Amino acid sequence: MFTTRRLIIVATAVAVLSGCASPNPYDNQGQADGGSQGMSKTAKYGGLGALAGALAGAAIDHNNRGKGALIGAAVVGASAAGYGYYADQQEKKLRASMANTGVEVQRQGDQIKLIMPGNITFATDSANIAPSFYQPLNNLANSLKEFNQNQIEIVGYTDSTGSRQHNMDLSQRRAQSVATYLTSQGVSGANLSARGAGPDNPIASNGDVNGRAQNRRVEVNLKAIPGQQYGGQQQQPGTVQQYP
């Protein structure tokens, strides 16, 4: 009979190997985190989830730790791998729909981040969305309706020019403008939040023009909904209303 330790190792290995069957084509584009190159996010999440589940299952089932480890690995590993697959598919479609729009799509572990530069989204010192940016936002709305099991956080940022209070207010209004537009296009507001961070968390130096331009941005962060069970199926997007 296998020992508990061997069962945990076997359960984890199965989850990792099953995930390796579907490599993420974007892992070699500089967006991958750590050592995940060559391994799909599905594999990584499934393996880590299986290990955590195996340990939890072994701890819970005191009478049969080996059985508990296998059950825990199967349940938790499948859930984690399910979100990995879900995020892989959404990332792929977002990269296609955001190509040549100026919006950068990043994958950071279990989170998808879209960076929208301020120079293409808003006029200077304004929270009114530039008409030319409606189409990229429509593309994003389509994705958020198709992949409608995301926690969506919209964060506005500014450079350090001007007073902090003014920048906090402006960044909040810009984040809210994006959120309002997305919900007007049919995106559910149930798991959506918007906030302004002003000059905090700069991604470049505020000491020169180019750096300040990079810091003026809106970020849309997509992550798993806590407690949500993820599978491989998503709802199809409906018709998107176009703004004039």
Automatic annotation (TrEMBL):
Keywords: Cell outer membrane, Membrane, Signal
Localisation: Cell outer membrane
Domain of life: Bacteria
One GO location term (cellular component): cell outer membrane
Residues annotated as signal peptide: 1-21
Annotated region described as Disordered, given as residue ranges: 191-212
Domain OmpA-like: 109-226
CDD domains: OmpA_C-like (cd07185)
InterPro entries found in the cross-reference section: Bact_OuterMem_StrucFunc, OMP_bac, OmpA-like, OmpA-like_sf
Name recorded for this polypeptide: Cell envelope biogenesis protein OmpA
Native source species: Pseudomonas fluorescens
Taxon lineage: Bacteria, Pseudomonadati, Pseudomonadota, Gammaproteobacteria, Pseudomonadales
